[in-house]
Design brief:
The protein is built from seven helices and no strands. By secondary structure, the chain is mainly α.
């Protein structure tokens, strides 16, 4: 029984145990097996959070714009209209061919709620 995951070997053992439970399917697991699966999943999640952290935010301004478009369910033409630019201009910014100007930076902050500090650091 794995009580804690501190090494890659323990992590691999936990992942193998989880895969074994999942191979049975949830209908084929007893209550104790379901509890063990949940416990191992939490241990694995804790280990991954420490050893394989996900970036908190995108690294580039185009990535952040795409993320906010996704979160707001905006197509590129809708985002362009919201930002007061042409689709071509937005496409150039998203592809990295064009940098944002001060007016667009203000609209990104106002309309898509992208932090001004983030925009200034990456513009």
């Amino acid at each position: 029984m794995i009580l804690e995951i501190n090494t890659n070997q323990q992590y691999q053992q936990a992942m193998e145990a989880i895969e074994g439970f999942l191979a049975k399917g949830s209908a084929g697991l007893s209550e104790s097996e379901l509890a063990e699966l949940q416990r191992l999943s939490l241990l694995v999640e804790k280990y991954e959070d420490i050893h394989y952290p996900m970036p908190v935010e995108p690294a580039t301004l185009p990535e952040m714009i795409r993320l906010r478009m996704f979160q707001e369910n905006l197509k590129q033409k809708d985002a362009a209209r919201l930002l007061g630019v042409t689709e071509t201009r937005l496409s150039e910014v998203l592809s990295g061919k064009r940098r944002v100007n001060m007016d667009m930076a203000k609209r990104l902050n106002d309309k898509l709620k992208i932090r001004a500090e983030f925009i200034l650091q990456r513009a």
